[in-house]
Write a structure and sequence with these properties.
The complex is a heterodimer of chains A (about 575) and B (about 550). With about 575 residues, chain A is α/β, with parallel strands linked by helices. Chain A is built from 20 helices and ten strands. In chain A, the strands form two sheets. Chain A has a six-stranded mixed sheet with strand order 6-7-8-3-9-10, with helices on both faces. In chain B, a hairpin with a 2-residue loop joins strand 11 and strand 12. Chain B is elongated and about 120 Å long. The chains are: A alpha/beta (about 575), B alpha/beta (about 550).
């Protein structure tokens, strides 16, 4: 994975004009702070000399007010750019991060739980975005610092040196503690992710929680995890904010005191004026603020470094996938472009699976050396007991699980990356337990496909959804609720089937379509699914499917124990015979 | 105690400007003494005051976390208990953001707000009193400044709340989107929806950008205006100081002191502003949290104790239900379930069968009509006691990311291993359990398990308990016929002596029912014993059976 610094440079280089403008504004924002300092210097000296109020004094006072107004204008402009920079960078990380996660084999578990992934996409990406604006702010602060040092040194170099020694000492000290702070940070973020995880899990399994009456037990678990988080966060805060920041504050304010001590001689013998003392006193809080910014930027830098590692863990990539520049259209009112699925360039003749082995990572569960051939315009039904590897076989063929051995062929040619190949228009898929998004029914079916409602009608009819849609209050515009909770299990399954058919794929891959369908609907769906001579690979143990099959494959313990016609199978394969007999 | 630390710290700060005045007067020859000593004093009070302030801050931070953890815990329990109608509209990601994120914003408010406002307020009063003793005109000017600044602060302090609230909402929506998409990977990726998801994502991120930028602009405009006000304060106090100096009422050092005190006042007003800023964020969050707290479950908790003397009689009496205003799901459904008998509800998909199961568990309450236990409306009972009597296998099985044990016991530590192992063995999962690398401690990722295995685990969850009512909503729909046969005995044992509701869209499971209810488009079109209906010519069940046989053989 790219180093954090490399990633930052890439993020900056992506929007050079934006960041440059932001930088100029940050420098302007600090530069304007010189104006009041110089004015105050003059004011005190005029007053000290003249002992009366002259018109020059009033002019200087008016300029002070004008400078304050100017500062406000620059500040607001700077904020606008700063926020744009930081959100644009975090958006890139998030967009790339999510795309990357979706690019992984979709049935392989993520390396992290969803709750943890959420916490990283949310907080860690945000932090890196904010760090970039802090980095610019810090550049502004450094410019300010240098300017202040030059100005003060030209006034009185001895006092200036005396004032800055403790400041430099503090900065060195803070850096010494850096690595420990990073460790504290990592453990507090970890504890934070655990809290986010238990909440995510609980609310995504709300039915199971209520059915199992686990509400109070979840609460107890949450309390334990929250207590751990409190301890780790407090430890980090004690170290970071309380010790470090107050050290910074102290040092800066002590500097005011040391100015007094060091300047006493020069002030008494007249080599330094009281106006110049006022200048020092004016700039010390400014420096203190800059130091706090600087210290905070260092803290955020360390935190961002941790955040960058955490994003890397999430995506598990060793290239620049996370920060690779790509166009983003960040308008919240934009239309989502639709696209048509191109017609299949070369008609499907045959798909074959040759000696395929696919296992779930870290287990021996999966399929072993499976071979199967699917011809165009036929229905192949895979059947077998629970856990025999039926779904796994489909997933392996579609590239949703990586193959550890064997190959998939399409019209006789080896498919290098099944995950990139088995996509519409070649293929579409209905998983065993479909999950819908909480968008409209129409969008769930189309998922960005450019079909109008008229073109969708035949699809709804083929999946026997047309009457269901009629009964919904907003028809196709009905929002389906959390994971489709407003629809029945059978409706969700048929929506998933419609989603597949809407893509007019050459090959239909269907995992256990009829588990939530009554017999009548089930038969309707099968008939209509196959009515135009579709090529279909399906997992089922239902007669409605088996009797329509041109080929039946029986899996047991991850291996094909029979493949052939139903009639043959009923005679020779015990598992198949029993499945057939029991399913009446 | 916390307040003490902060007040001591602030009182020490008040003495700083005095040393500054003495210093200036001494170097200018207006007063006697050692200028260096004044400088050393100045340093000392700053150091001690900062130490006190740091300790105070740490302690309040601790208080803040303790308080918000308690709030999170209560809020979680509250939300977990809300009806499903509530959860249908909200993604888990959004819930996390609201329970964890919003509450975090309130932490500071809880721990520091009152103390900080109090301590800094006292300091403001202190400064004004000190300046009045110096000269009434200075005191008056400063008092006017403090009051004017406070009025401005209070007037504008709420101005950023709506923008912040909107920004938080955008964060919650983005979280919800991520959660959904990661959950639906297997649906989206192979159907070529990655581009669509990416477009939706960009739009959500765009909302985040727009609202986030707007919120920080509003917030900083507020802070920036305050800074401008401070400059005005400095100008005003300089002017009055310079004037009094020019007419010889005060020393030159006193101008320094007045300015320094004005600076201190501004610093304090800034701290108050910071607190108000936190308060703004907290107010946005409090508003949202309160909304959650005030969301009472659509189902009121009853007060009646549930006394169970064996399996209850259940009655659906003219029950109608709709999720959305004009979509009727159930329409006047009535049927009885005798104690200890099995009732099967059959019918076409989308007809409302699962809704009947959900009403019996009180996931929802009927829109009209009632569901009764031994003659009493379910709404009369205490929800917790009532639900404890029910074993429910829902149609979609939800597994948690966690150990196999936690998934079976749902974190109930009183359920022993032997019970879990027996249940798994009854479901034919003995070997499967043995093949799990860490046995009951094996971490389960939803997608490691086949949907059939998940369904078996859901059955096991019920087997380890002893409910008096059992609801099986398509509990074996994802099992192959052979496995179904394996578990038949376990299911028979589960149904025996309990009042049971079986939901089935296929008829093979119906034969074990004492009574069958046929549902079509939310209405009962037929009910009776299985024998009665299946043999009565022309009955819907008989037709369904005919159809099923014709199709399947």
């Amino acid at each position: 994975m790219t180093s954090f610094v490399g990633a930052l440079i890439a993020l900056l280089a992506r929007r050079p004009a934006l960041f440059a403008t932001s930088l100029v504004l940050q420098i302007g924002r600090t530069a304007i702070q010189f104006v009041p300092g110089l004015l105050i210097w003059q004011l005190f000296d005029r007053l000290d000399e003249a002992q009366t109020l002259s018109s020059t004094v009033w002019l200087l006072v008016a300029l002070l007010v004008a400078a304050a107004a100017g500062r406000l204008v620059i500040l607001l402009t700077a904020i606008w750019f700063e926020a744009t920079c930081s959100f644009s960078s975090s958006s890139l990380l998030r967009a790339n991060g999510l795309s990357h996660l979706l690019g992984r084999p979709a049935a392989e578990p993520l390396r992290l739980s969803r709750g943890d992934a959420l916490s990283r996409l949310s907080a860690d990406a945000d932090l890196i975005g904010r760090f970039l604006s802090f980095a610019l702010l810090t550049v502004g602060d450094i410019v300010l610092m240098v300017g202040v040092v030059v100005l003060l040194a030209s006034v009185n170099s001895v006092v200036t040196v005396g004032v800055f020694i403790p400041i430099v000492a503090a900065a060195v000290l803070v850096n010494q503690f850096g690595s420990r702070l990073e460790r504290f940070r990592a453990s507090s973020r970890q504890a934070d992710a655990r809290v986010s995880e238990i909440l995510t899990e609980s609310f995504s399994s709300i039915q199971a929680i209520q059915v199992g009456q686990a509400e109070t037990r979840i609460r107890r678990r949450l309390e334990e995890l929250s207590a751990v988080r409190r301890r780790t966060v407090l430890r980090e805060k004690l170290f970071d904010e309380v010790l470090m920041s107050s050290l910074m504050d102290n040092i800066a304010l002590i500097s005011v005191g040391s100015t007094l001590v060091l300047a006493a001689g020069s002030l008494i013998d007249g080599t330094m004026s009281l106006g110049q003392l006022a200048l020092f006193i004016y700039f010390l809080p400014v420096i203190s603020d800059s130091l706090i910014h600087y210290g905070y930027a260092l803290t955020v830098a360390r935190q961002s470094n941790v955040a960058w590692q955490r994003l890397g863990e999430l995506t598990d990539t060793d290239d620049d996938a996370l920060h690779r520049a790509r166009p983003l259209d960040l308008r919240s009112n934009r239309e989502i472009p639709v696209e048509a699925v191109p017609p299949l360039a070369e008609p499907l003749e045959q798909v074959s699976i040759n000696g395929a082995t696919a296992l779930y990572p870290g287990t021996s569960h999966g399929v072993h050396e499976v071979s199967l051939t699917i011809d165009a315009n036929t229905l192949t039904v895979i059947t077998g007991r629970v856990g025999a590897g039926k779904s796994t076989l489909l997933r392996a063929m579609l590239g949703l699980l990586p193959l550890t051995a064997g190959e998939i062929r399409w019209n006789g040619r080896t498919v290098d990356e099944p995950g990139d190949w088995f996509l519409p228009p070649r293929c579409a898929y209905t998983p065993q337990v479909p999950t819908l998004l909480s968008i409209s029914l129409r969008d769930n079916i189309l998922l960005g496909l450019g079909l109008d409602d008229d073109a969708l009608q035949p699809v709804l009819a083929r999946t026997a959804l047309d009457h269901d849609v009629e009964r919904l209050s907003d028809r196709l515009a009905t929002t389906v609720g959390r994971r489709g909770s407003r629809l029945s299990g059978g409706q969700v399954q048929r929506v998933a089937a419609a989603r597949m058919l809407a893509r007019s794929p050459g090959l239909l891959v269907v995992d256990d379509l009829s588990s939530a369908l009554d017999s009548r609907t089930e038969r309707q769906v099968w008939d209509r699914l196959l009515d135009d001579g579709a090529t279909c690979l399906a997992v089922s143990h239902r007669r409605a499917a088996l009797e329509r099959a041109d080929q039946v494959a029986v899996l047991a313990e991850g291996r094909v124990v029979f493949a052939g016609s139903l009639t043959n199978g009923l005679d020779t394969c015990d598992d198949l015979a029993e499945i057939w007999r029991r399913d009446e | 105690m916390l307040a003490l630390f902060l007040i001591v710290s602030l009182a020490l700060q008040l003495s700083g400007p005095y040393f500054l005045r003495s210093f200036v007067d001494i170097v200018r020859g207006d007063a006697e003494g050692s200028a260096t000593a004044q400088g050393v004093w100045f340093i000392s009070v700053i150091v001690v005051s900062q130490l006190f302030y740091a300790v105070g801050t740490y302690l309040t931070e601790d208080v803040g976390w303790t308080a918000t953890n308690a709030l999170r815990s209560d809020l979680t329990l509250h939300c977990l208990g809300l009806d499903l109608g509530f959860h249908d509209d909200r993604s888990p990601g959004e819930m996390v953001e609201r329970i964890d994120g919003d509450v975090a914003d309130m932490a500071n408010f809880f721990s520091q707000f009152v103390i900080q406002i109090l301590a800094n307020g006292l300091l403001l009063v202190g400064v004004v009193v000190v300046l009045f003793t110096e000269d009434w005109r200075v005191g008056l000017i400063l008092l006017t400044y403090v009051l004017a600044a406070l009025v401005l602060l209070i007037r504008f302090q709420g101005s950023a709340v709506p923008a912040m609230q909107a920004s938080r909402q955008a964060v919650a929506e983005a979280s919800g989107f991520w959660e959904e998409v990661l959950r639906a990977r297997e649906d989206l990726v192979p159907n070529g929806a990655r581009r669509f998801v990416d477009e939706l994502h960009q739009r959500a991120l765009g909302l985040l950008l727009e609202r986030g930028r707007r919120a920080s602009l509003f917030f900083r405009a507020f802070i920036g205006s305050i800074a401008a006000v401070f400059v005005l304060g400095t100008v005003v106090s300089f002017s009055i100081g310079a004037y009094l100096f020019s007419i010889g009422v005060i020393t030159f050092g006193t101008i320094f002191m007045i300015l320094s005190l004005t600076g201190l006042v501004s610093e304090n007003l800034r701290r108050i502003t910071d607190q108000l800023g936190d308060f703004q964020r907290a107010a946005a969050s409090i508003g949202r949290v309160r909304e959650l707290v005030e969301t009472t479950s659509a189902m009121s908790d009853g007060h009646r104790q549930l006394v169970t003397t064996g399996p209850p009689a259940v009655c659906f009496d003219d029950v109608s239900f709709q999720y959305l205003a004009d979509t009727v799901v159930l329409d006047g459904v009535s049927f009885d379930m005798e104690p200890g008998t099995v009732t099967a509800v059959v019918g076409r998909t989308g007809g409302g069968k699962s809704t009947i199961a959900k009403l019996l568990f009180r996931f929802y309450d009927p829109t009209s009509g009632s569901v009764r236990f031994d003659g009493s409306d379910l709404r009369e009972f205490r929800l917790e006691e009532f639900r404890a009597e029910i074993g429910f296998v829902t149609q979609d099985v939800e597994l948690l990311h966690g150990s196999l044990r936690d998934n079976l016991t749902m974190f109930d530590a009183t359920i022993g291993d032997d019970k879990l192992e027996t249940a798994l063995a009854e479901l034919g999962l003995e070997q499967w359990l043995a093949s799990q690398p860490a046995g009951l401690e094996t971490e389960i990722e939803g997608s490691d398990l086949s949907a059939g295995e998940a369904q078996l685990l859901a059955l096991a969850r019920v087997l380890v308990r002893d409910p008096s009512v059992v609801i099986l909503d398509e509990a074996s729909s994802r099992l192959d016929p052979i496995t179904q046969r394996t578990i038949e005995r376990a299911v028979d044992a589960l149904l025996h002596g309990r009042t049971a509701l079986l939901i089935a869209h296929r008829l093979e499971t119906v034969a074990r029912a004492d009574k069958v209810v046929v549902i079509e488009s939310g209405r009962v079109i037929e009910s009776g014993t299985y024998g009665e209906l299946s043999t009565r010519a022309g009955s819907e069940l008989e037709q369904l059976l005919q159809l099923s046989l014709a199709g399947d053989s």
